[in-house]
Write a structure and sequence with these properties.
The protein has about 325 residues and is of the alpha/beta class. It has one domain: Aldolase class I (TIM Barrel, Alpha-Beta Barrel), CATH 3.20.20.70. It is built from eleven helices and ten strands. Strands 1, 2, 3, 4, 5, 6, 7, 8, 9 and 10 form a ten-stranded parallel sheet that branches. The chain is globular, with a radius of gyration of 19 Å. The two termini are about 35 Å apart. The structure holds S-adenosylmethionine, 6-(5-methyl-2-OXO-imidazolidin-4-yl)-hexanoic acid (DTB) and iron/sulfur cluster. The site of iron/sulfur cluster has 9 residues, from loops.
Length: about 325
Amino acid sequence: MTNIQSVQLNSITPHPSIEYWSVCKVEALFEMPFLELIYRAAQVHREHFNPQVIQLSTLMSIKTGGCPEDCGYCPQSARYQTGVQNQQLLEIEEIVEKAKIAKSRGAARFCMGAAWRGPKPKDMEKVTAIIKAVKALGLETCGTFGLLQEGMAEALKEAGLDYYNHNLDTAPEHYQQVIGTRRFDDRLSTLGKVRKAGLKVCCGGIVGMNETRKERAGLIASLANLDPQPESVPINQLVKVEGTPLENAVELDWTEFVRTIAVARITMPKSYVRLSAGRQGMAEEMQAMCFMAGANSIFYGDKLLVTDNPEEDGDQRLMAKLDLEPETEDNRWALEK
Ligand code: SAM
Ligand code: DTB
Ligand code: SF4
């Protein structure tokens, strides 16, 4: 265990854009005494955000299953028998209907996911029309469509996309153990295109994929060293789906997941840290601890892409018990603070 004093205090104060996070420095945060780590993360959270507020995003799968990639965690890969029903790109009307419902239930952002390695040029006309229609409802828009070819990020931006979600997923050293059909650098290259087009970046990863703590620190360091840092950082706990290569991954202790949230908060002080996949199996107490550790965003709605998420009613009850409110333009503190 690291002595609290040995983790330099200046590593939690401003200038993230010029601070380099070595894996060692991130590992040292992971090794802090648990409650000190949470306390430190809670302090950083309060420097930049209203701690009573949670950003709500609703997810919808707009193209499901049949993906050619071999991501070892994913129920939508065509290579694994997971029972997921394939569905071609949905029609605009069906997506707009779901987006309206999400908005009426209090979601501020609508995230659309497609089980592609990346969009084909022929998909872009329909995808951009979908984004325009959702944006017209007055929702923030986010898309996660995989690797982008030249010019695609600009077309998405032009259509009204606010955020692009593209996760690093795991540490560079662990990447090839989980995914064989692309490289970590391919992800960085798409993230570069997304930034260049002026889109906001949503980029995070998954924990609980048999990685070591050092590899978890490697994932967080890779995210924190993106310059600028991502506006939004989803931290997913692996949803173990039968039929995927990771269905029997070793269960991580809950404290290790909460530590990961806290370390993400400390290293990326101005980013929204989203407590993402895996909430369905989490006790309310654990989720509350994640909020204390600096998580300030969730996926809201009873489905993620193909797996279950807590019901909206349950989330509303939990937020009420914790005196948390959904984020609106009025209760949000300036990101630049
Ligand atoms: N195909 C695109 C891609 O891979 O970027 C977009 C959709 S993909 C399903 C989006 C993200 O979902 C992945 O990057 C991964 O982080 C997350 N994900 C997929 N399956 C998961 C699982 N079983 N548990 C937790 N997160 C998962
Ligand atoms: C992210 O980081 N997590 C979301 C979203 N971005 C697209 C996806 C979670 C997927 C969980 C498994 C499933 O339902 O497919
Ligand atoms: Fe395809 Fe994305 Fe699933 Fe990988 S994570 S198999 S790229 S849908």
